[in-house]
Structures are given as structure tokens and as C-alpha cells.
Amino acid sequence: MPESSLVKDGRSSSVEYGASPLRQFSQSSLLLHRNSYMLGTFCTEHNVQQCLSHINQEISSLGLPPVWTESGNSSELNIVAVLNCMYDLIQLHRRGLRTLESMEVEQLKSSSNIDHLQLTITRLKEQLELSKRENTGLLERERQLQLKAKSLQSCLKNEKEEVQKLQNIIASRASQYNHEMKRKEREFNKLKERLNQLLVDKKEKKQAIDVLNNIGRADGKRSLWKTEKTEAKHEGEMYKTLLSDYDARQRELVLENAELRKVLQQMKKDMVSILSSRKPAVKSDKPEHSGVQARSEEEEEEVFDSSKESVELYCVHAREKLTNSIRLQWRRLKSHVERLDSQASLVQMVESKDTDAVPQETQEEEMDRLKLEIQQCKDFIQTQQQLLQQLSSPCDEETASLLSNCYMLQEKERLGEEWKTLEEQRKIFERERKNFTEAAIRLSHERKAFEEDRATWLKHQFLNLSPFADSKKTPLLKSKSAFLISAETEAPEKLIKCHSDTASPTPRCVPLASASTADLYRTLCLIPENSSVQPKTNGEHVEESSMFCGDVFVQHQQWEHSEDHTPSQEKNSSI
Amino acid sequence: MNFSEVFKQSNQLCKVSPDGKYLATCVQYRLVVRDVSTLQIMHLYTCLDQISHMEWSSDSLFILCAMYKRGLVQVWSLEQPDWHCKIDEGSIGLVSSRWSPDGRHILNTTEFHLRITVWSLCTKAVSYIKYPKACQKGIDFSRDGSYMALAERRDCKDFVSIFVCDDWHLLRHFETETQDLAGLEWSPNGCVLAVWDSCLEYKVLLYSLDGRLLSTYSAYEWSLGVKSVSWSPSSQFLAIGSYDEKVRIINHITWKKIAQFEHPATVESTKTVYKEVERRPAVGTDEMSLHNITTGSTLFNTQSKYEICSLPVQIPVVKPDPDRANPKIGVSVLAFSSDNHYLATKNGGFQVHSLNWHCSDNSLILLGKEQLCLCYMETDEEDK
């Protein structure tokens, strides 16, 4: 509104206090006060004309008829015009105030609206937030429910499948049962028919066998009566087969066990060596390895002990000791490898990955392989322990008796063998004895002959001592051997007599032809001393050259010398 | 491989004597004995009726011919063709007949498994064994022929009787913890008896020779169980083939499973797979994958050849009818090689009737309905 703006411009000085007097404007009493205040500053006696023209301008600019015309020089104002003007101005002012009021009221209204709207906005925002949160919550629940639904569906599918499978099983079993039932029913019917037939059929065909002749048993033995003894024998045989089977199995298992034990020992040694070789390298590292060192020293002792005790590993404690020590070693090895692994991984993070990967992998492979082997060994050992326990449990009396017989068997066999050797030796001795006797007989014959010969020779010698017997010397010497031969070929009666005489074990007495004089004795004694009597190994080869003196004792001695290698038995039985 | 001329036989009764010198075949009611090397007919015997079963005695001196319909058993001697023996079971009927391991006794199972009659050819004596069980394999002789194990059923309970074959003396008689005993088998060393339940329950029980229960093995419950069982020749392992198409091997020390083999439809892990491709389009392919086979070459006739398939190979599986009893799934045949290195198994409904190893363990013979396949195995051991 241009009027109001002009009013505002004109009254620029009054703008400052325009706001507060608005409230008091309805009170007309204060109006004059204002005006008088304003008038006092605007117009003075000096500038009346200027003021008048100014006001005229202003009024004309407001659109009101002019207040003052410049027609006369009179300074008198047209009062009517001025009053009208004033009245107009007052109306304008009132109108302006009214509009102002209304605007203020509007403004108040709008501000309150704004407030209200702001409040609603915040409320709605809050509501929105809330509903968003609710929404997300609901979405989450929906998702969970969907998952649950899926899992339930899969469960349902599984259950359905299982139900289907069970139904199939039931169906197959039912068909099997039906089949069996039908078969049984058919058989039953056949039985019934047969029974009927048998009841009706009068002539009954009996069972019979018609053999041309009995044939022998397959193994050729006669069949035995069924007695308790045969029954016991059958039982015995049955248990024997079972026992031999168990024996064989146990032997195999013992061998396997021994091998596995060796493998475990080997593994343990290897592990100990690996761990102990690390010791100097380990020393420089962390202090916790000191414990390991102490333990590894113990291990070495253990290794030595176990190698000595290898034979004693058959008892439970030693076995447990072995397995425990292996477990211990294994744990240490594992920790060591793990440490290496961690070190390697640390190094890997710093360096490139190429270098350490391969040895690590191979180590891991080695570890896995070792682990597997150890597990297998452990299982084997466990099963074998169980079996050994089973086998070492007490058996029946029968088996005990069988076993006891087994122990004796070996000794019996040995005894039998010894008997055999003894028998053979006895036979050999018999033969030797026979030979001895024969030789002795021969010897006695020869001796006899020789004696006779000597006797004759002595006789001749004796006779030759006399001056008349020179011519008869040489034929005598010749006749010595002839005598021997003749003595041997003489009638065996003499020999037999001799033999019967000498058969007794008493010291032999050889009949001498003559030797009564002392001279004869001396000469006779001298002769056998001079002759060579060679010591013989066997009594069989007593030389004929040995000439015997008349003394039986000496002969006996000689005989003994020659026979000193034969056993004492033979001495007694010889001549 | 050379083949002789075709000889007639009936009932698939054609057996070589245990000493390997003679071949016996049955043609209707006649028994023909030929020399193996010359294939000349040595003896010809005539029985009273069509022969249902024929068996050589263990010492190859006698042949047993059983005629189930008539209830008769006739025994013929090779040394004395004039010798005859006829066993008539009478009205009680005959269902099966077999020799005892010593070759001098005949065990006849009567109709309805009422009893087993033991006839002695040496003394004409008769013994009876009551309540034998009618099952897949109810009677087994130990390998050395000294013991016989027989499954019995009394009062709805299963028992096992162990007899001494010498004089048929009952050594042990004990109850087994099975629901319905299906079979029993001695270990080759004669010390352990494996007893298994019917296919409705997976249970294998191991008894010692003196009747003690050593161990029980059960792999799973409810599904169909054991189909076939086989001992390894060293008695160290027991292979159990089941309806779930797996073979489980248990060891003789702990009687626990040590290995498990599967028969997946897609073969990936074996070394080589041979596929027979026939030029004639009518017959389909026949293939087999064996465990532990390394490489090999096979002989073939002119009409088919083998090609090596690249792994993985999909084996055509025919799904059996689940509503029928005794379905044709699962491991039905197991065969160990005599050196304990290999195990051959047949899984599923393949038309393979028998699997046998050659005694030198370098080849495996597969007999199908119309085919004979001989697989050689080469090991990768380096010589010297």
C-alpha cells in the first residue's frame, strides 16, 4: 500500500517509536500528546511557509485535496480544508492502524500455525522413526521365519523320504512274507495230500537198501563201536584242531607283534635322535627349553634301558612303558614342529612366501605320515594285547593234560634217540667182542703152537747142549713155522679144549710142556725180554713174535698192555 | 580254445570226477562215463527212472544217481561194473541225495524234510537225523571231511548240530540266535562255522567248532539283508554280499568289517572296463566290471569282440520289480581266488550263472546263459 509506505517514510523519525505506541493508539488522550510532541519539532515560526508547502506536497502526494493554495499572500489557512485534511489523515491513520492490527493478528495466527506445524512435524518424525524401526524389526523376524520355514521344509522332505524308504522296506518285507507264506501253504497242502494218500494207500513201501556186497571203508580201517572212549576221542580231536588253529594264529600274531615292536623302537630312537640333535640349537633360544633338555637327557637313559630290556618287553609294564615313552616323544616332536611352523609363518609374513612353503609342507606330510603309522601301530598293539590276554586265560583240564603230554613228548623222543644210539654202540661192541674172541682164540692157538714149538726147540737146545745134537739144529728152525702151521691145522679138538679151558674169566694158565729147572726158567725169561713186544692199539693184533715166559703173570701183563685200549668189559670176557 | 563235439545230457547233469580222469553225463535214465583225455565211453549204466541228480564220490570210485520221483537212489561202481546198489526210500519220498565226504555213506533227505537218512554202504546200517531245516544251504561238510554241520528247526527255533563224519556221532547241538536260519558254511580250516539269517534280517553269526558263539555281525537293519556268503581260502576273511549291492569283508581276528565294496551304476574307480559288442544286433551287450583287475586280454569267438570303454562307464541297470519276493538285486555270487588276492562278485540281474577262478589264479571264467567268457588277469608286478 503506497499510502502506508509513504506514511512510514514521512514519519521516518517516528518509526523508531512506532511499535510501542501502536498499543496505546486506541486511547485518544495520548494522541494529542503525540501530536504536540511531533509538532513541536517540525514547525517553528520561521519556517511556516516551508512547512505549509511541505505539508501541501505531502497531502497532495497522499491524494488528498491540497490544504493551502498559493493564491493569496495571506498566510491564513483554509481551515475547512485543513480540518478535512486532518480528518482524512486521521481516517487514513485509523485505517492504517486497523490494517496493522489485522496484520498483526494474522501474523500471530501464522506464527501459532507455524508452531503447531513444527510440533506436528517433530511428532510425525518421531512416529516415522518408530515405524521404520518397527519395519526393520519385522523384516528381521520375517527373514528368520523364512529360514525356519526352509529348514522345516527340508526336514519335512527328509522325513518324507525316510517314510518312503520305510514304506518300501515294509513293502518288500511284506512281499517276502507273503511269498514265504504261500510257499509254506503250498507245502502244507502237499503234506495234507500226501497224508491222505498214505492213509488211503494200504500197501506201504518200506525203506530198503539192496547192495550186492559190502564195500570196505574208504580209509581201510575197521569201524569202531560207539563207546564213551570214541566219544572222548572225538572231543579230543576236535579240541586238538581248535588248539592247533589257535596256536598257529598266536604264532603269527607274536611275529607281527615283534615286528611292530621293532618298528616302534626304531621310531622312538629316531624321534629321540631328532630331538637331541636339536639340543645345541635350542640352547641359544628361549629359556623354556631347559626343561626340554633335562627331559631329553632322561630320554637317552630311557633308550639305553629299553634296549637292554628288549627281551623283557613281553610283560605288560614294559609294553606300557614303551607306548608311553613313544607318546611322550611324539608330543615333544609335535610341539617342536609346531614351534617351527609358527616360526616359519612369522618369517613368511616378513619375507616372501616361496622359500619356506616347501619344507613346511614336507614336514607336515612327514608328520601326518608318522601320525598315521603310530595310530596303526597302537591299534595293532591293542588288538594283540587283547588276544594275548584271551589266550593266556586258563584252559580246561583236558587241554592241560594234552599239553602236559606234549611237554613230555620231546623228552621221550630224545630218550628214544639216545636208546637207539646206545643200542648201536652195544651192537658195535658185541661185534668187536666177537672179533676179540676170535682173535684171542687164534692167538691162543698160535701161542699153543708156539709153546709146543718152543718146548721142542728147548728140548732140542737142551739136547744140543750135549755135544751130539749139532746136526739137528737147522731142521728144527725150519720146523718152527712148519710146527705153527701144523699146530694150526692140527685137530681142532686140542684148540677146543684150550678154548674151553680159557673160557673162564679167571686168569689164564697156559700149559707149558716143560720148564722145571731154574736154568730153563731164566733162559725162557730172558728170551721174551729181548724180543720186541710192540704196544698195540687193539688187542686183535697181538704179534706172534712175542715169546712168553712160563710165568702166567707176565703173560697177563703183556696181554693187558696190548689190550689197554679196549673197554674193561672186554678184558673180562677175553681169554 | 578248442571245443569237443557236443554230447547229449539232461538236467544239466555233467560232472568231472574229483581225480580228473572221468567225465560222467546223464542222458534221461542212462549214465555215461567217459575218459577225459580220449572222450571214449568207458561205462554205460542204466537206471530205473529219469535221473534227477548225479554225484561222484570223493574217491572217484562210485557214482550216485538219484531219482526223486521214484524215491530211488542207485549207486554204480567204476571198478566193478557188476556191482550194484539200490536204495529205496519207500513211501517217505526223496527230495535230495548226496555223498558223505568219505564216499561210503549216502545222505537222503526225505520229502517235506521230515528227516535225513544216512545209509552206510559198508555196513548197510541206517541212521536217522530228525528235523533238518529246509533252507538255502542247510547242510555243509568241513573241507577235510571230518565234520558235518546241519541246520535244524524245532519248536520254531533254529539249532545247529555238528556231527563227526566218522561214525555220525553227534558232537555238538546248540541253538542259534537267528530268526530264520538261511544257511551255514564252514571256514576252510574247519574251525569256524558261519551262520546267516534269511534276507529279512541282516545277521551273520560266527560259531567256533565247539559250539561257542564267537561273534555276531550285522551291517544294518530292516532292509533286505544277506544274499551270499563266501570264505577266503586262507580262512582269514569272510565276504558277505547283500541286497544293498555292497560286499562287506570281515576279518578273522576281530570279526569286524575291514573293507566294503560297492557296485555303483556308474563305474569310475576301476582300471579297465571291457564291453562286449556283438555284431549281430539282436543280442544286447553284456558287461562286467571286476574289482582289482589291472589289465587283461580276452579270447573271443568270431562273432563278438571286446572294446575298452573310457571311464566313467554307465552300466545299464534293470530295475527289478519291487513287488516280487527275492528281487534280482544285490550281490548274488562271490568267488575268491585261491591266493586270496582277488574277489570276483556279481551284482544285479546279469545273466551270469557262475563265476570260477582257474586254480592258477590268472584267469576267471564267467558262464552266462549263452556265453562263456574267460578273462585273463595280468598283474603289474615287475619280474626280477
UniProtKB/TrEMBL annotation, chain B:
InterPro entries named among the record's database cross-references: Centrosome-WD_assoc, WD40/YVTN_repeat-like_dom_sf, WD40_rpt
SMART domains cross-referenced by the UniProt entry: WD40
Pfam families according to UniProt: WD40
GO cellular component: microtubule organizing center; MWP complex
Top-level taxon of the source organism: Eukaryota
PANTHER family in alphabetical order: WD REPEAT PROTEIN 8-RELATED, WD REPEAT-CONTAINING PROTEIN WRAP73
Name the UniProt record assigns to this protein: WD repeat containing, antisense to TP73
Species of provenance: Oreochromis niloticus (Nile tilapia)
Lineage: Eukaryota, Metazoa, Chordata, Craniata, Vertebrata
